[in-house]
Amino acid sequence: MDGLRARVLSVWRRTIALSWPIAVQQTFNTLMRTVDVIVTGLFSPAAVAAVGLADLYAQLPLRAGLGLGSGAIALSSQDTGRDDADTRDQAISQALLIGFLVGIPLVGVGVVAARPLIALLGADPEVVAMGGTYLAIVFAAAPMRIVGLVGARSLQGTGDTRTPMLVNIAANGLNIAGTVGLGLGIGVLPELGVVGVGVATAVSRTFEAVAFAVAFLSERTEPALRRPTDPTIARQLVAVSLPNFAEGMSTSLANFPFNALLLTFGTNVNAGYHIGRRIYQQIAGPLYRSYNVAASIVVGQSLGEGEPARARFEGQAIAALSVLTLGAAGIVLVAGADPLAGAFTSDAAARQYAATFARVFGVSMFFFGIFFPFAGSLRGAGDTRTPFYANLSGTVTFLLGFSYLAAVTFDYGLPGVYAGMVLCYAWWALVVTAGFRRGDWADTAASMMAERADAGG
Q1: In contact, 157 and 297? CB cutoff 8 Å
Q2: Cα 73 to chain center, whole Å?
């Protein structure tokens, strides 16, 4: 028993060492979005809804970056574990190049279709006007957004979680200052409202991408940019990234009908959902995202060293730590939902709905504590399909199907929506747990590494 305790504590110490820079990074990342919501909340509930609806489309570059980042972190962690710097550097370079190219078409979409895309959701004309302008500005920086995400995940896969933290703190600090300054017209800066919030986001994402490029070209980081020459690496990157991108998009696309469902109950309900979601992400996001990435790093590197049994034990130990800490965060969120909601809006109705949605997320925190570390472990092995299946099936069946039937068909109203949300997240946790315990993810990783070794040899 003492030996088992020592092994668990060893994994926890390593996880914390890897996680705290990621947690700090994500704290600033979520703080940036939180400040966006607070500042827009000073304008009106319509402004909050406009930015929230535009951010549904802004999930496209986010999901592309996270998808390619999952491929980069899987390959870079495995190749770091097996001490193959050349293959690792090629994987990182190819992921960055693919990410930049993927983002270019989104710039054009923002120019020609931003307002019609917001109007498709059935929003009021005022929301369409503000949301369309904001979306066009954010899409202008889509290639940079993707490059920044891929750069961070690539370095994290090598075990360097501090450089992404420093870059992210600087970028999000710039974003926060720009949002407050340009949104509210502080000092000599013009008061641009929602436009100022969008400009601040675009500038900070550009800064982030440039900073990562400079880091890779300098002596600051161990990985270096190389001219891509190995098609096997590119094929594996795409194969690992696509299911993760599809997983993210299944959530993002589901947000359209889900937000449309919420809008049938009024703009204040929709604004309350976005505020409640922002509260939950500010409190829990740094934790679950850091455990997700740390699990990918630890499991991927152990598999690269040829230790699948150790990788399995480490994944379970990280999940135990995640459940303990996220469960505690959920209790805090449930208890403090109302005063936290009051920090975002002075509108009484929106505040009430925001507090209720925050409590729903708090109750769901136990399931997030299971889902994210196990999903991260699977991704570190190159298995991005199981988390995708979990996300897609749970989202379609419960978040959309059950919520609509309970809320509209059976006329339970918003309580039906709350129940659908909790059931969705519980299903996510169940499926990835089964995939981790019974799946052949260790064999998948071994096969990928052997293929890269043969191609490079």
Answers
A1: yes
A2: 14
CA–CA distance, 285 with 356 (Å, rounded to integer):
18
The secondary structure of residue 266, as a DSSP letter, is -
Residues belonging to the chain: 457
Query: Residue 457: is its pLDDT beyond 60?
Result: no
- For residues 334 and 403, what is the distance between their CA atoms, to the nearest angstrom? 21
Task: Provide the pLDDT for residue 455.
Answer: 67
The alpha carbon of 417 is separated from its chain's Cα centroid by a whole number of angstroms, namely 23
**Confidence band (pLDDT; 50, 70, 90) for 456?**
low
- Residue written as tokens 């193959």? 84
Contact yes or no for 259/51 (Cβ under 8 A): no
User: Where does residue 187 fall: left (phi above 0), alpha (psi -120 to 50 degrees), or beta otherwise?
Assistant: left
User: Beta-carbon neighbour count of residue 252 at 10 Å?
Assistant: 18
- Encoding tokens for residue 217? 């070209």
What's phi and psi for 15, nearest 5 deg? -60, -45
Distance, CA of 167 to CA of 142 (rounded, Å): 18
Cβ neighbours of residue 400 under 8 Å, at least 6 residues apart?
254, 257, 258, 261, 420
DSSP 161: -
3-46 confidence digits (pLDDT tens): 788 888 889 998 999 888 888 887 888 778 778 878 887 877 77
Q: How many CB atoms lie within 10 A of CB 1?
A: 5
Cβ-contact 134, 54 below 8 angstroms: yes
pLDDT of amino acid 325: 94
Handedness of CA 308, 63, 61, 159 (dihedral sign): negative
Burial bucket for residue 338 (CB in 10 Å: 0-12, 13-18, 19+)? middle
SS3 content of the chain, % helix, strand, coil (to 5): 85, 0, 15
C-alpha 56/C-alpha 118 separation (Å) is 9
What are the residues whose beta carbons fall under 8 Å from the beta carbon of 93, sequence distance 6 or more?
225, 226, 227, 228
